[in-house]
Write a structure and sequence with these properties.
about 550 residues, alpha/beta, four-stranded mixed beta sheet, 22 helices, 21 strands, about 35% helix, disordered N terminus
Length: about 550
């Protein structure tokens, strides 16, 4: 992961914000165990459809774990493995023999959160030379990527490789996948993937979410299991002030009152709405926002948990414990408020754990970010739902020839090399002496590396992710430990791992609830207003959407 992306500022809390912050971490669900079934859409119809379990099994690549390097911190309770040490260059293993390409030249359209590197820089040249082919990158501003993506897909000027994140998979874009991009099943399904060992080592759950329109079309970037939202706190300041980490929503409110000192420009927290939902055991976002109760599907907004989360978060705002800029909806500087000590708690995706640590190591060596353990509404065990096993894919243009597709897959196999390989060192750190230097046995990017070596190639395909930051081994131990503890309480949501496009007539039903939550938590609307909105949602299509999902569940079974 690039340092610049890891440390990119957050925007106002939204589903898109947290997914983006999470996805650039390029991590994975451990295991690779096949799930029950997947779901895909009828191509371009917007009506929805399913791929049965048997059909799905025939589509998915055969899983074969990588054996390149044993982790220092093994997977426990589904956590991502951790690496606290970096092999010296002489000990790195080559996972690919020779140059995988044979002189082809391809264009790639992708998002980038941060300043784009200069074109034709030494890093791009080094990677293209190692690939034996040329990938011409067209990075776009990740914050406005959906708008540009829609325009490109509607035109005839589509790059050879196109990256699409989960949160941009609106109706038309989702439907365009089947019409515009190649079916990779003939190249990767079953044992065919063994031609590409690094792709075969990608967990099956991530491949399952790569089925679109009944075909295996995407090359996935696997996700960590609980990476979407982490409640962070300033461990250094907590220790200095003697604050105790809260273990219940009530303790959190009491601590927030103790911390907040507006005259000193210190507030307890930023907007904690996303954490509030997990404190109160709410299911996740579309399509994971359903739970089953007494044989009936219940939407997140219909649960008492949701209303309790709203009310608790409203108390945070009403007490004056939330930073004024967060109250005003200025989310872009949330990380800055946290690192400067204006807030001591905030929530964000897992990429910020390393990003903030890296950023502050020089100017603020005492800085220590830590993840707070989740707790339940009464301080008991939490109920935590797993995040999607993949959230970003690359797709190959349908107009490419078979030879070209096979060459790109060979390039993707190189790029998806795991930690401990020569390929991984090049992709993640560039060339030694040019982009990074070995310091105390650890590759450390220099200024050129920080500028040029970003998460550009990893969007093509990523390995089963690890937490591999040997420059900050304690941070690796902390994050892996947090995942191991929280993994004990994790469960698969309904429809886990399914690639679902809701029918177009229902696609925007849930959208108003994001603004509603902001209004209720900030006191502009009441809980009664939320209850009326829920009633309107049911009558406006929510009940029909429930029936539609119930049919999917009957056909496919749950992912739980």
């Amino acid at each position: 992961m690039s340092n610049s992306q890891a440390s990119a500022s957050t925007s106002a809390p939204s589903r898109r914000t947290f997914l983006a912050a999470t996805a650039v971490a390029a991590a994975a669900v451990a295991g690779g165990t096949p799930l029950l079934s997947g779901c895909s859409t009828e191509e371009g119809s917007g009506k929805g459809g399913t791929t049965s379990g048997k059909e799905l099994k025939n589509l998915l690549p055969t899983y074969a774990a990588s054996t390149v390097a044993d982790p220092d911190i093994p997977s426990v309770n589904g956590s991502s493995p951790g690496y606290t040490k970096a092999p010296p260059a002489a000990a790195l293993v080559a996972s690919v023999k020779g140059k995988p390409g044979h002189g082809g030249s391809y264009t790639m359209f992708e998002p980038l959160w941060g300043t784009p590197p200069p074109k034709n820089n030494a890093y791009y040249k080094a990677v293209n030379d190692a690939l034996g082919a040329t990938i011409s990158l067209r990075p776009q501003d990740g914050n406005t990527y959906g708008e540009k993506l829609g325009a490109v897909l509607a035109s005839g000027d589509i790059a050879d490789i196109v990256v699409i994140p989960l949160w941009e998979m609106g109706g038309r874009i989702h439907g365009a996948v089947g019409a515009k991009f190649a079916d990779l099943g003939p190249y990767l399904s079953g044992d065919k993937v063994k031609k590409y060992p690094n792709l075969a080592a990608i967990p099956t759950a991530a491949w399952q979410m790569s089925v679109f329109g009944g075909k295996l079309r995407g090359l996935p970037m696997p996700s960590r299991p609980l990476a979407g939202v982490i409640p962070y706190y300033r461990e250094d300041i907590f220790a200095e002030e003697g604050y105790q980490v809260p273990k219940s929503p009530a303790e959190f409110l009491a601590l927030a009152k103790e911390i907040t000192r507006p005259r000193s420009k210190v507030w307890a927290c930023d907007d904690m709405w996303w954490s509030a939902q997990r404190f109160f055991g709410c299911p996740g976002e579309k399509p994971y926002y359903w739970v089953e109760k007494d044989g009936k599907l219940v939407h997140k907004v219909e649960t008492e948990n949701y209303l309790e989360a709203l009310e608790w978060c409203r108390k945070l705002f009403a007490g004056g414990y939330v930073h004024p800029d967060a109250v005003a909806g200025k989310g872009n500087d949330a990380l800055t408020r946290f690192t400067s000590g204006q807030t001591l708690l905030y929530n964000d995706g897992d990429a910020k754990w390393y990003g903030a640590t890296f950023e502050q190591a020089g100017p603020n060596p005492a800085f220590k970010i830590q993840g707070m353990d989740w707790f339940g509404p009464d301080g008991g065990d939490p109920v935590i739902y797993l995040d999607a096993p993949a959230q970003i894919w690359s797709f190959l243009n349908k107009s490419l020839s078979r030879d070209e597709i096979e060459e790109i897959l060979a390039l993707a196999n190189f790029i998806a090399a795991p930690f401990g390989t020569k390929e991984q060192r090049l992709i993640d750190y560039g060339v030694e002496g040019v982009h990074h230097d070995m310091k105390k046995g650890v590759p450390v990017k220099n200024a050129t590396g920080v500028r040029d070596v970003q998460d550009t190639y990893r969007f093509i395909a990523s390995p089963q992710a690890s937490v591999a930051y040997p420059d900050f081994p304690k941070m690796v131990e902390d994050y892996c430990g947090w995942m191991q503890r929280m993994g004990k309480f994790a469960r698969k949501p309904l429809f886990y791992g399914m690639q679902i496009q809701e029918p177009n007539r229902y696609a925007s039903l849930y959208t108003p609830f994001e603004d509603l939550a902001k209004d209720v938590t900030r006191g502009r609307k009441s809980i009664k207003d939320a209850q009326r909105a829920i009633s309107d949602w049911r009558g406006g299509g929510g009940d029909r959407l429930r029936d539609w999902y119930a049919k999917l569940l009957d056909t496919n079974g749950s992912g739980a």
